[in-house]
């Protein structure tokens, strides 16, 4: 009943011309009626990638934004700007934003709210660090990130968001969580949302991210609460991304 979503996160890779070329190649990948495909591209490429992909079912997203309509925020990009360029999704609170740019749970909550205010789907990222994982704090960290990150949301808006569980120790390391580890956290997330927002929890898509590749996508997608993937490195090459998009049901 939940439509799978495979999202690429290009991070700070591909110039606008490389991105446009890649978008042309993306047009050749197999489209599955019952799956959503999304590419979250760098700001300068949103417009050209959206133009190339218009008329296809491949969706375009941003990787970040500032939670205000406009204003004196030198160097920042607003929800209105990304939307007008063709983005319908935005990643909020990626661990690289949390760690490198010191984004807090409260600031991320503002981004989630701003995205919804502009009818952009936020992908709220949560995930524990290696240290937190080893200290047995995984569930408490996820709970804190979710409670604060979703604090402005009401019962009706919760259905419009996507959550991505990305254990920080699995991002870009080649070490993915086992399907069972990921499933346990995804189930925990869904239960937490259910406690706070009731039945809406059953329609929310929860993606797994962290070293997703052609070799592990099928077993991850076989888990009951894994509704898709947020893919970094493996989304940069057409061969690996199209294989992930075309995951097999096992
Ligand atoms: P990775 O990145 O697939 O390269 O581990 C995932 C992410 O950061 O979203």
TrEMBL record:
Protein's name in the database: Triosephosphate isomerase
* Gene behind this protein: pgk/tpi_2
Q: What is its main location?
A: cytoplasm
Please state what class of enzyme this protein is: isomerase
Q: Tell me where it resides.
A: Cytoplasm
Which organism does this record belong to? Answer: candidate division TA06 bacterium ADurb.Bin131
PROSITE patterns for this protein = TIM_1, TIM_2
Q: Which residues bind substrate?
A: 9-11, 172, 211, 232-233
Q: Isomerase among the record's keywords?
A: yes
- Domain of life here? Bacteria
Residues folding into a coiled coil are none
Cite the annotated pathway.
Answer: Carbohydrate degradation; glycolysis; D-glyceraldehyde 3-phosphate from glycerone phosphate: step 1/1; Carbohydrate biosynthesis; gluconeogenesis
Q: Which InterPro entries match?
A: Aldolase_TIM, TIM_sf, TrioseP_Isoase_bac/euk, Triosephosphate_isomerase, Triosephosphate_isomerase_AS
GO biological process terms, semicolon-separated: gluconeogenesis; glyceraldehyde-3-phosphate biosynthetic process; glycerol catabolic process; glycolytic process
The alphabetized UniProt keywords are:
Cytoplasm, Gluconeogenesis, Glycolysis, Isomerase
Instruction: Supply one GO CC term from the record.
Output: cytosol
Please give the catalytic activity noted in the UniProt record: D-glyceraldehyde 3-phosphate = dihydroxyacetone phosphate
Q: Does the keyword Isomerase apply?
A: yes
The record's PANTHER family line, in alphabetical order, gives: TRIOSEPHOSPHATE ISOMERASE
EC number(s) of the enzyme?
Answer: 5.3.1.1
Active site annotated at which positions? 94 (electrophile), 166 (proton acceptor)
Family under the similarity heading:
Belongs to the triosephosphate isomerase family.
Q: Which GO terms describe its molecular function?
A: triose-phosphate isomerase activity
Report the NCBIfam families cross-referenced here.
tim
